[in-house]
Amino acid sequence: xxxxxxTALVVAIDGPSxxxxxxxxxxxxxxxxxxxxxxxxxxxxxxxxxxxxxxxxDDAAAVAAVVRAMPLVMGVDPEAPGVHVDGxxxxxxxxxxxxxxxxxxxxTNLEVRAELGRLQRAAIDAERAGGFSHGRxxxxxxxxxxxxVAPDADVRVLLTASEEARLARxxxxxxxAADAAAVEATRDQVVRRDADDSAVVQFHVAADGVATxxxxxxxxxxxxxAVLDVVVQASGRVDLVGR
Length: 243
Ligand SMILES: Nc1ncnc2c1ncn2[C@@H]1O[C@H](COP(=O)(O)OP(=O)(O)O)[C@@H](O)[C@H]1O
Ligand SMILES: Nc1ccn([C@H]2C[C@H](O)[C@@H](COP(=O)(O)OP(=O)(O)O)O2)c(=O)n1
Fold this sequence. Notes:
Blueprint: E1 9-14, H1 21-32, E2 35-38, H2 39-52, H3 60-68, E3 72-74, E4 83-85, E5 88-89, H4 97-100, H5 103-107, H6 110-128, E6 137-142, H7 145-149, E7 155-160, H8 163-175, H9 180-197, E8 211-214, H10 220-235
Parallel strand pairs: 1-6, 1-7, 2-6, 7-8
Antiparallel strand pairs: 3-4, 4-5
Helix pairs in contact: 1-10, 3-6, 8-9
The chain binds adenosine-5'-diphosphate (ADP) and deoxycytidine diphosphate (YYY).
The site of adenosine-5'-diphosphate has 17 residues, from helix 1, helix 8 and helix 10.
């Protein structure tokens, strides 16, 4: 019987806003003892930093230059995935509506995508190479992780949910209710933003080899379970069964 330590595991998860990527990926990383990378937080942090630096978001070259010089530190511990820019903890600020409503302007800047994609690959490679800053691999989530950033991941998942379910979840999270008014107040940061983001990246249909998990009719725990099942099946890692 081999006693070699299992190799590091890379899990890539993409999906639209409100599909559950962040919360589910974090729970999956925790269950498997892996690191966790929230790539959406990197686009949000870049947007926060551009505002802080007073750069007009429609000046693509200036935005790219500022993002390339951004002093960003991404935490990868799923228990406390901190985001710091120039020493400031921006974890809460980057989730506010004023950032959600403008982040697509930065996320559709192709030079920014190249730079943040490079940082994301470096973070994933550090875990893959045995950096083991948290565990034995990493769960990375976003919009283009399965297709552009880590198409070679051991496990690739597209997490989807109906527009209705995604709006209701986000309304509950942001407004504490999922009635008609709360859903309408949420529409811009879910539906309009996904439409804008779709101009540069495709996250509504699974690419070849990517497993789809539709969480529309699943509760949170069932969704985590479904993704864990895909991880075991796609990786062939029987040592992970029952986690
Ligand atoms: N399967 C699910 N059923 C119900 N609520 C969910 C489910 N998955 C996630 N949520 C909740 O929906 C909200 C949005 O989830 P989040 O992980 O932020 O989505 P995303 O990162 O895809 O935008 C959170 O409040 C989360 O707890
Ligand atoms: N890999 C990624 C991750 C996020 N983005 C963009 C898309 C979104 O508008 C922003 C913020 O992403 P985030 O995952 O935090 O957004 P949601 O929580 O799903 O609403 O960044 C991207 O273009 N590519």
